[in-house]
Amino acid sequence: MKIGEFDLDDKVMVVAEIGNNHEGDASLALEMVAAAAAAGADAVKVQVINPARLVNCSQRERLAQLTRFRLPLSLIAELAQRAAAQGMFFVASAFDEDSLEAVAPLVAAVKIASGDLDFKPLLIKAAALDKPLILSTGMATLAEVDRAVNTIARQLQSPRTLKDSLALLHCVSLYPVPLKLANLKAIQTLKETFAVTVGYSDHCLGIECAVAALALGARIIEKHFTLDKSRTSFRDHALSADPQDLRRLAEITHAFDEILGSGEKLPGEAEVAMSLAARRSIVAARDLKAGERLSWADLDYVRPREGLPPEAAETLVGRTLRVPVKYHQVLVASLLNDSKEN
Hints:
TIM Barrel; 8-stranded parallel barrel
């Protein structure tokens, strides 16, 4: 799957989830985009929310908070431009069909949040767009994920396929997620079940779970991002990566495919050179005279590898020396008679 020209088969994408950590402050949101780019993120993501289309009018406190945090579309467009200017992709989670339609022209990929995995009208509209689709799977059973994937598949227009259009992110929808509940092996389950790109949306404290997710096949790492984990009491700051965390996560992520290597068990060139220093040679365990027959007690094994390996010892025992040798002198075939004496 590709997001823009970013091929997720070749590279792992780090997405800095700004979410609502800007708390409605336009200048802070712009600063966060710049900080995410400086830390090495490949993409930034925002949430596009119309509060009246998300929560019931009876939830006055939640509505008030979401209204304070809401960013105008003009600012979201500016965030997208800033991200592109700094070499990042722009991604957005839209929480209703109208918001999705409004933000679609600005994004490289559309994100559907875990809470909307069963929101069929939004899934249908998102899948009908000619955009890569990222679906978080927090709170969902495998059967629920399957229904969502099938809904999306039915909307794709040829030649688009699920494999080139959809990424599934394992997610645990707690804030924060205790380490014992992270359930990272679900990443493998999603990959094996659906044969699409998989990733991980991390709500754990720190970056350790995100790093572990890489080893399980995650090709997208989404991590909440803040400039200051203690900025306010808003819950997302504490579980977010700050610029230092994000920089370290990006460094590890971008190196991870090289860290994993090819899987072929062969020493590289540097290891071959190292083996000469680290492996042992057969040497004389004491001063020996010409004509002496070698016994096991006459042999020792020390670094570096300058002569015969330890495994050749049994071919030496019982043979006689043609010349005297000194303590720790490397034993080679030219010092010995050709055959063992009876």
